[in-house]
Amino acid sequence: MAMKSWMSWEGGVDLVAMTSAEMTQPNVIVHVARMVHTPVGSAPSGMILIPDAVGAPQLMGFVSSNSNVGEYFGPHIFAGTPFENAPVLQAEFDFSIDPAGSASTRITVQGHVIELELSTLGALESVDCAPGNLPFHERALAAKAPSATLKFDGQEISLILPPAGMNGGPAAVYSACGIYQR
User: Do the domain assignments include residue 157?
Assistant: First the structure.
């Protein structure tokens, strides 16, 4: 398969969740990696969707320490999705990864602090998700987390993990490495 667009990553800390059992679609996304590689450069980067108290989007966009890398995602990886025209937000990242048990990240963006912790990680497994809900193929090495803790500005957000993430893989994972390709 010829690739039109791609990105790869190392040290991903990823979550897709809902804040209410009545929801049919996730309204929480924190997908970030210690290092993301694209044709335009490499930098800590990802995407976030953080809801307000009633579950509506409060903070959303691609986050990166390098605007060129952040600006690559919408038109090249997420074209044709609601994230295609998402804003790029300058962010700072801290990661703590113990592949034998836990992974966490702290993202500082637009004066806010997002803290995600995954614990009781399973074994690393090969993930191979064909395009479906998302327009790209994903291949990764990922360790599923049975639960996650997410804080926004120090306040914990109540989470419900769906059986699978938006691409069909686990909803909460530490991803040692992977690639999205179109």
Answer: yes
> Structural domain of residue 88, as residue ranges?
6-181
In a domain, 23, yes or no: yes
Q: How far is 39 from 167, CA to CA, in rounded Å? A: 23
Helix, strand or coil for residue 76?
helix
pTM (2 decimals)?
Answer: 0.93
Mapped onto helix, strand or coil, the DSSP state of residue 179 is strand
In a domain, 102, yes or no: yes
Q: How many domains does the chain have?
A: 1
**What confidence tens digit (pLDDT) does each residue in 145-158 have?**
999 999 999 999 99
> What residues pair up with 182 in beta bridges, in sequence order?
none
Tell me the residue type at 85. Answer: N
Q: Which tens digit of pLDDT belongs to each residue from 113-135? A: 999 999 999 999 998 888 877 78
